[in-house]
Amino acid sequence: MNKLKLNSFIASSALLLGSLSALPVHAEDEAQLIKQGEYLSRLGDCMACHSLPGKPDYAGGLAITSNIGTIFSTNITPDKQHGIGNYSEQQFADAVRKGILPDGSRLYPAMPYPDYARISDADIHALYVYFMKGVQPSAEQPPETDLSFPFSQRWGMRFWNWAFASDKPFRPIGGASAEVNRGAYIVESLGHCGSCHTPRGLGMNEKALDSGDEQFLAGGSLNHWAVPSLRGLPHWSQQEIVDYLQTGRNDKAAVGGEMTSVIEHSSSHMTDADLNAIAAYLKFLGGNPPLQAYNVQAQQATEAKLTAAKNLSEGERLYLDNCGACHFVTGKGAPGVFPELDQATIVNASDPTGLIHTILAGAQQPSVAKAPSKLAMPGFAGRLSDDEVAQLATFIRQGWSNSAPAVSKDQVAEVRKTLK
C-alpha cells in the first residue's frame, strides 16, 4: 500500500470510527445504568434526607437535628452551581464513601459515609450515572449548616475519620449463604442501618460497622427514642420482617418515628429478593438475649379486669376510653392493622420517650405500593393532661406481660415541649 492509499485508508477508518462513536450504541447500557442507579439510591435512602415535600427531588434542605446542632442536607442534583454537576466520578465517590468534598472540606457524619464506605465500585458508578443523567438539575439553595465552635471547624473531621471511620471494603461472611451475604451488603453499606441501630460512643461514632462485632445493630438511642436491636429479631419471623420493611406493618407492629420515612422512601421500593436477603441476614445474626416468655397469668388478669371494667385505676380507665377500641382489652391489636402493645419494644423501652411521643402526637403509616391505605392513630396532646398521659403510659408499660418502669408527668412535659 503506497503512502497516498495508506493516508486515505487512515482517513476513511477515522471517519468510520467517528460515525460509529456518534451512534447511540451505549444508549441502552446508559439507560440500564440510570435505572440501576435509581434503585441503588432507594437502597441508600438518599431521597429521605435530600428531598423536601414541594421541592425538586434531591434539592436538599432537610433540617437534621443532632447533638451538636442542626445540619442541613445539601443539593445533590446535577446543577453545576448549587449541586454536584461539576463532580468527577472520583470526587463523587470520595464524597459518598469518605465524606470529602472536591475542595477538600469534610462532611459531617450525618451523611452516613462511614457505612457507605462499603459500597462497591460498580454501585458507585451506577449511582454517579443516575445522579448526573437521571436526576433533573435544580438551582435550589438549601440553608448552610452553621454549627457553633468547635463543631464549626470541619477540618477536625479529619481526625474523627482517622479514629472512627474505615476504608475497608465489604467482606462477605465466610460460610454464609449468598442470600445472607446479599443482605449483609445492603445492611452494612447502602442501607446504613447501623447509623441508627448501632450504639454510639463518646465521639458520636458508631461503635461497630459490620457483623464482626456484636455491638453492630445491637440497638441505641435516636433523639431520646429507644432504637431496638436488629440482631436475630427473635419475636419476628423472616416473613414478618419482610412485611414490615415492605409495608410499614406486620401482624405484630406498625412503623413510627424516623423509620416511617425509611419505609416510605427506601425499603418499600426494594425487590422481594432484596427484602428477603435483609431479613435472612438479620435472622442470621445472634447476640440478642432470649425472648422473654409471655406471662400468661398477668396477661389474663389485665384482660379480665379491662373486660369487667370495675374498680379501674386511672390508667386503666384512660386506656379503655382512648385506646381499647383499636388495641382491645387483650393488648394484641389487630394483625396488620393495629400493633400489639403486649411486649412491644416501644412500650418496654427503658426510655419511654417513643411511647409518650406516640400518645401525644399520634402516628401514621405511610402509603406504599403494597399497602396504599394510610392508617393513622390520632394524637392525644390536646385531650389529655401530662398527668393523664403519664398514668396511661404507666398502665400500658405495666399491663399484660409488660414490666417497664412507671412514667412521670415531668417526662411527659419534656416530650410535649418537642412537639411542633
Automatic annotation (TrEMBL):
Question: The organism sits in which domain of life?
Answer: Bacteria
Signal peptide annotation: 1-27
* Matching PROSITE patterns: CYTC
Q: Where would I find the Cytochrome c domain in this sequence?
A: 32-135, 178-286, 310-400
Q: Which UniProt keywords apply?
A: Cell membrane, Electron transport, Heme, Iron, Membrane, Metal-binding, Repeat, Signal, Transport
Any idea where this protein resides? Cell membrane
The name of this protein is Cytochrome c
Give the organism, scientific name.
Answer: Pantoea anthophila
Q: What is the lineage of its organism?
A: Bacteria, Pseudomonadati, Pseudomonadota, Gammaproteobacteria, Enterobacterales
